[in-house]
Amino acid sequence: MAWLGMAIKACYFLAALLFILGLKRMSSPRTARGGIGWAGVGMVLAVLATFCLPDLANRWLMVVAVVLGTLGAWWSGRRVAMTAMPQMVALYNGMGGGAAAAIGAAELLAVSGHVVELMGGGTFAAANYTPPSMPQLVLALLGGLIGAVSFSGSLIAFGKLQGWIDRRYVFPGQRTVNALVLLAALALAAFMTATGPTMPLVCAFFALALALGVMMTLPIGGADMPVVISLYNALTGLAVAFEGYVLGNEAMVIAGTVVGAAGTLLTQLMARAMNRSLGNVLFGSFGAASGTATALTGAQKPIDAADAAVMLAYAERVVIVPGYGMAVAQAQHKVWEFSQLLIARGVKVRFAIHPVAGRMPGHMNVLLAEAGVPYDLIVDMDDVNPELPTTDVAVVIGANDVVNPLAKTDPTSPIYGMPILDVAQCRQVIVVKRGQGTGFAGIENALFYADNARMLYGDGQAVAGQLVAGIKALDD
Question: 305-475 in CATH: which number?
């Protein structure tokens, strides 16, 4: 059977190559769809190779799990709205962390002698089960800890994004309590490494790990959710890599390492885009409204859709800044429709994307791609900011905190120091907003009171439709 082992390892190696190539292609919107397909083929290959392992137990239970998971993913992918995609990503990422934690728990229970009986008389461990080495035991514990934290933390992130949980929950001494819970979990891990795991110790260890994930995420504000999702994605990858080493599964090690590395880089980029350290994201208060911020004076100046359409139609350069409000209103298609009308009139239109716009990395890019916006019209913050002073009109639709000038002018503001899209420097600004409320971070926006800003109140999709009608009326 040596040839079978070689074939399985070759399949794992090929699957790993497909994962890496797929991830590489996902770095560009033009090739991302193909990259997802490549990575999917790699995953199918890795799963099929795993089913061919000669000492694998409970294959029929694995088939049931794969079928149920596939049907659930297909159903949710078809039914979940694009506006709920961040919640879906957080939930799926949590499932990955939970799976890694479950692998660690099963391995620790097997070591402790508690081999759990399953339906049909099968067991978690194969009949020829070999206890793990000391490095494997350590990595099983670390993988279980990290996976459990990612699982429970991602579920809390899902609840926050879904609106089921209050944005922040803090109490005095919270950091100290979190540190003590982490130290207790590490102490239990060290004790089990030295003396061997037992059922009570394993249960206590995972209870602490799950509690830590909850307690770490509850105080984090909603504005930090893109960074948090990236961080838990990196942790899930790391946990999978550790458990892959424990199982001797090369595909899990490589896939987990790639996911962990990519998630870490993305987390660093997201934190840098907010000009904040990762520690400040986890232990700061960016998501809370500030009680000491400078009070804003002046009044918001409304404009109707007909006047806004005239302003846009006779401009030379227009920049559109989408935000989560556009996603909620599902206005991306109408926004692209009036953009096409402007382009047909000779207006130079571009879409400006802030790195943390929306509720997850790349959220706005996905929405615009769904609407058919060409990739060469979508520009990043660093590329578009130098052009904004010469831009005739900026249209801000659904964005708030990422265009707030207080990030540059008010040291008492919670977002002070965060790089923003400098739309306040445009000659005119039209802000499409449902009402006069604050953004997701709960911070007043000085842009809305600027002399060159006009407020176009209403639902994003309805307002975009009115702009379409207004521009068309100018051609009649």
Answer: 3.40.50.1220
